[in-house]
Amino acid sequence: MRRALVVLLAALFADSCSGDPAAPVAARLDLFEGQHAITMSIGLTLRLTPKLLSAAGDTIALPLGLVTTSSDPASVAVDGIWLTSLAPTAGVTIRSSVVYNGRTFADSISVVVSCALDLIVGVRPGTMLLTVGESSA
């Protein structure tokens, strides 16, 4: 009986010391606006927008200590929350994690690096105006 009481008190004490009870309850880490796959052109830099979110979707102040890594730093380099595409690749996983109120939250995105910029071609009409019955010659 005494042993059970000691275990129960130790569990209650440990629970009361883990984290700030007044802190908002975090539900998940969002690394890049809810996206989990992005495509970058080679040589570009992208800023991640990590957010710690509550179950209701409210943003909670992100604590210090966010760790972000690349599964292939030769293709996509990570510097804090900045990604730089260095070489073409079919997919690199970027992972981030942070400890908040005694719990670890993590998120990841898949990054594809293409060789060239995607160009959008637009066609505009010229300045020539034809009136019915006239020719352009």
Global structural class: mainly beta
Largest sheet: 4 strands, mixed
Strand order of the main beta sheet, please? Answer: 2-10-9-6
Instruction: Give the DSSP E fraction (strand runs of 2 or more residues).
Output: 35-45%
Question: How helical, in percent, are the residues?
Answer: 10-25%
Overall body shape? flat
- Encode the helix/strand succession as letters: HEEEEEEEEEE
Quick check: average pLDDT? Answer: 81
Q: Please tally the β strands and state the result.
A: 10
Alpha carbon gyration radius: 26 Å
Low-confidence stretches: 4-17
Q: How many individual helices?
A: 1
Terminal CA distance: 107 Å
Structural commentary:
The protein is mostly beta strands and 137 residues long. The protein is built from one helix and ten strands; from the N terminus they run αββββββββββ. The chain has one helix spanning 2-16, and strands at residues 26-30, 37-41, 45-47, 51-54, 59-60, 67-70, 76-79, 82-85, 89-100, 103-114. The strands form three sheets. It has a four-stranded mixed β-sheet with strand order 2-10-9-6, with no helix packed on it. A hairpin with a 2-residue loop joins β7 (76-79) and β8 (82-85). The radius of gyration is 26 Å and the shape is flat. The N and C termini lie far apart (107 Å). The relative contact order is 0.21.
